[in-house]
Design brief:
Strand content: 25-35%
Strand order of the largest sheet: 3-2-1-4-5-7-6
Mean pLDDT: 88
Structural class: alpha/beta
Oligomer: single chain
Number of domains: 1
CATH superfamily: Vaccinia Virus protein VP39
CATH architecture: 3-Layer(aba) Sandwich
Radius of gyration: 14 Å
Number of strands: 7
Largest sheet: 7 strands, mixed
Low-confidence stretches: none
Shape: globular
CATH class: Alpha Beta
Distance between the termini: 30 Å
CATH topology: Rossmann fold
């Protein structure tokens, strides 16, 4: 966990609103924590069969599996996405609550390159942060920022950034 407070429902809803529910493919959520974003994604219309949640904490992964029994919950690391998703098909979006600002640069590069390997052309990465992120990691991964908005109703306020594969 890398947050001062749990993500608010308003932040989760803003992140989920960035996902095109009509597009083909899977939505992969990273760092789901207790499931506030997972819940918003499901309410938005992402079906449980199309949602894959990857959580590094064994305790939180177990909690998520119990809370969302129809969702594919995997206890693993975000950098392992290519191996985990190799047989699942097209990924239309990655929704991340990972604390990327607090991770070493080389780890962020590894994670962002792993995401880009699985992302469909024109696929999206939705990431929130409390401070603007180093764009260089996304550019090296072939992603560019296409939208951003601040969710003032979160404590602390959070920036939601949307990156698209170019």
């Amino acid at each position: 966990m890398g947050a001062i407070c749990p993500s608010s429902r308003r932040l989760a809803n803003r992140m989920a609103a960035s996902i095109d529910v009509e597009a083909d493919g899977f939505v992969v959520e990273l760092g789901a924590g207790t499931g506030v974003v997972t819940e918003s994604l499901l309410r938005r219309g992402i079906t449980p069969e199309r949602l894959i949640v990857i959580e590094k904490s064994a305790l939180l992964a177990a909690h998520l599996s119990q809370r969302f029994p129809d969702v594919h919950v995997l206890h693993s690391d975000a950098a392992d996405i290519p191996a985990l998703l190799s047989r699942n098909g097209l990924v239309k979006a990655v929704v991340s609550s990972l604390p990327l600002r607090s991770l070493p640069k080389h780890q962020v590069d590894t994670i962002s390159l792993a995401w880009a390997q699985c992302l469909a052309v024109h696929g999206r990465v939705v990431q929130f942060t409390y401070a603007p992120f180093r764009a260089s990691a996304w550019l090296r991964a072939g992603l560019r920022r296409t939208a951003h908005a601040t969710e003032w109703g979160n404590m602390p306020p959070a920036l939601v950034e949307v990156f698209s594969r170019v």
